[in-house]
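Q: What does the assembled structure look like for these inputs?
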Amino acid sequence: MRIALDAVGGDFAPDAPVAGAVGALPDLPPTAEIVLLGPQTEVEAELAKHGDASGRIRVIDAPQIVGMAEKPLAAVRSKPHSSIGVGLKLQREGSAHAFISAGNTGAVMAASALILGLHQGVERPAIGAMFPTASKPVLVLDAGANVDTSPREMRSFAHVGAIYARDVMGRKDPAVGLLSIGEEPEKGNAAVKEAHQLLKDEQHAFRFVGNVEGRDILAGHVDVVVCDGFVGNVVLKFYESVAHLFTGLLQREMEETVLRSEAMGRVFTVLDYSTYGGAPLLGVRGVSIICHGRSSARAIRNAIGVAARSVERHLSEHIGADLAGGSAA
Amino acid sequence: MRIALDAVGGDFAPDAPVAGAVGALPDLPPTAEIVLLGPQTEVEAELAKHGDASGRIRVIDAPQIVGMAEKPLAAVRSKPHSSIGVGLKLQREGSAHAFISAGNTGAVMAASALILGLHQGVERPAIGAMFPTASKPVLVLDAGANVDTSPREMRSFAHVGAIYARDVMGRKDPAVGLLSIGEEPEKGNAAVKEAHQLLKDEQHAFRFVGNVEGRDILAGHVDVVVCDGFVGNVVLKFYESVAHLFTGLLQREMEETVLRSEAMGRVFTVLDYSTYGGAPLLGVRGVSIICHGRSSARAIRNAIGVAARSVERHLSEHIGADLAGGSAA
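A:
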């Protein structure tokens, strides 16, 4: 197994990606390798700081840099030798099995769709975001790859999300909910009401629990929450900001001794996104993981773990087979 | 000033509404009165427990009860003598100036629109939800009265929200943001992009700051966040659940002495919705305040304060004048 990692994407590159790669090695199968993408000299210099002697981390030169604020499609087209372009092409050629980046999200999405291609029946891939809860995390998709999502697209999100929950999150019989504003099938906007009917009327390999509300996302009843990318993106960013608000409030009000206690450490851990390390781009032919721009080395390390699990469990093959089965195509 | 209060609406009725009314008297102008609506004997018995000798709280008989789970429109039509129906008719006749209920939200919305009527240019009223933040609260609307909101409706939400922020929330020069998935005008779904153009291209008596993202809602840059009712409802319910998750986490992890500290009390206060007491239904001709079904006496008391302020500041007249001005009609 070979995992390609964008070493120059994200606010803390190249430090965080390179440290994340070094840190991830013990988590991976002994034969697995990591390929770092970026300007060769720069990345090698960063890697040298870690004195890694495993021989399992290589650098492949990708001299072009896609900035965080660049227009995605234009950047992908004008910079074929960027870390994103080169990393994804390795996967298309079969020289790598997964790609991870904390760089320009739009560019990673566009390049993944263009270079890896999409599974049959997928119009646009969906971003699956892991939401921390008091117990196990929940997958919310789409978290922002699409807007004005059609009912058929929402149905395909349910399928790919359920397979991800089973293969990568280890949920044996995934429960999938459709995000709406009431439990009854007739509650919701036009697209959600139609998606509800599509999901209710078909056979599938997961439990469709019907509509769930905003308050149910974190309640632990469901493994996957399906929604339009506009709604998912708003809720994802809102959740991040609430976690910041809470931790900020605690820091403002509580004394140092309390803040540094183990108990408070456990509270902060729950609210820490980096535990889940990255959001899968679901629907592409292959494995592409998008990390938050502010990803730490720990977040990257965890994203590498997610990528490895996706490869080992044959996530992409399972998604392809399910969608080709026609039920969601 | 006379404020009509549904004494039998909500999970903790009649205790919470009646206690809330008694508690609110000191907050109100000395001539203000409160009218409690519900089955006369039952409500009078509850009121008697408080030994209120002010003479400023009266009971008016409304023998029919609308259940929390009843279909709104059918309930409104079949029960004209419910607390909701009688209370709103008092306002239409001029015998009361505001109505407050923690009962069936859909029924309060439907009855408010039917009985009070809507301001010119309003197709459906919007629910304005107060979101607690680390500093001053922010008004999010629509929080669930509408789905598939049109760009013109979103524009009218911006207008009524800004007037509410000025009149009732005391913001002198309200900043209004349009909820989207990126700051640039071209980011968003079809309806939001069009609403952005409508708001950008017109003159109005508030600052339109453009698009805001999910992470900006609580950041304190804006006084009002405008969105489709589907999105607003999801985010509102999600926020409530996050506040619960967070307090639950603290309760699980922290020791009693810390939990009972004044500092932790301040943290919990920020996360307590009841501080803001109720969501105004904006766009109706009059004042109608919808409280959470789980409202405590404190929440009701605060809602009465909000209603009184709305009446004193001539909120409804200001909204009517703004909308009749044509800019958002």
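Chain B touches chain A through 51 residues (CB under 8 Å).
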